[in-house]
Amino acid sequence: MSKVRAAITGIGSYVPDYILTNEELSRMVDTSDEWIMQRVGIKERHILREEGKASAYMGGQAVLNLLEKTGAKPEEIELVICVTVTPDMQFPATANLISHFAGIENAWSFDLAAACSSFIFGLVTASQFIESGQYKKIILVASDKMSSIVDYTDRTTCALFGDAAAAVLLEPTTEDVGVVDHIFGVDGSAAKYLHLKAGGSLRPSSIETVMNKEHYLYQEGQAVFKVAVSKMADVAVQMMERHNLTPENLAWLIPHQANLRIIDATGRRMGLPAEKVMINIQKYGNTTSATIPLCISDFEKQLKKGDNLILAAFGGGFTWGSLYLKWAYDSK
Fold it and tell me: Engineering a disulfide at 87: which of 46, 94, 96, 296 sits with its beta carbon 3.0 to 4.6 angstroms away?
């Protein structure tokens, strides 16, 4: 009997209408288009500005787009997993809210958080339910409203992040496609370099935490950059070696979109030409959990059934990993 794998059989996405450009940012803080482009490669980012809308709204829109594109019915979905570090609230789970928004009533759901590695961690988690034979239709949705935790007076971080969501449908297959392998790692000792200080049980919200701006993302850029370049490239190359993948038979590297220099360094370590590295950071910035599926959505029409793909990410925690995926369908 052939091994059952979890295959991505469709993808949907959502980005807010409002676009925050480098030129507008330069009027808010001491920065410039040239400075941002040279350091991170971001030209603009989408921001969700409407009152009463957050990660669940964006995730719900991405799921509705996915259902429309694939023809899957809400009642057929058995599990919804939402990966996010900006949940609408501590509880209930954002996945619960997304399910309600999208009319998914026969599924259970939960959230998973691994910062910028969340999508690939979630993809492996969802795959286990498919491979076990327990479920046949699972939606994995990545949604982050990073503008809600960004300090727009901090020039070192405010240019980096945007808001977006993307969702994939996972179904079982016995063909030679789907999620093949993964290599993941974490290092909790590095939490001090990239974290959200307050709002959890360690430092609950208070007048003091608000006044001290402890509810905004904190990042020590140089420390994060140094480890990210090493870890992302290491696990991507390790995955190539484990499966005898070469620059010739690997169709694409799909990297987390945090910094163009990190992406370029990873591609070079893998020996890949620039045309085999998916990049859309210039349009969206770092949308955290959503960057990798948003890349897949943007490049979907260029993917072919059987394409060998390596997904690679690095995020706060620290978390990092690579995932070997064989694409399951030819886009129409």
Answer: 94
Distance CA 181, CA 121 (A): 12
Give the other-Cβ count within 10 Å of 24's Cβ. 10
Instruction: Tell me the pLDDT tens digit for each residue of 198-245.
Output: 999 999 999 999 999 999 999 998 999 999 999 999 999 999 999 999
Q: What are the structural domains, with CATH classification, of the chain?
A: 5-176 (3.40.47.10), 180-326 (3.40.47.10)
- pLDDT of 109 higher than 70: yes
Contact 169, 139 (CB under 8 A): yes
**Does the model's pTM come out above 0.85?**
yes
What is the set of active-site residues?
Answer: 116, 256, 286
Q: Closest Cα to residue 193, out of 314, 45, 84?
A: 314
Packing angle, helices 291-299 and 118-131, rounded to 10: 80
Tokens 């949940």 — which residue?
Answer: 87
246 phi, psi to nearest 5 deg: -125, 165
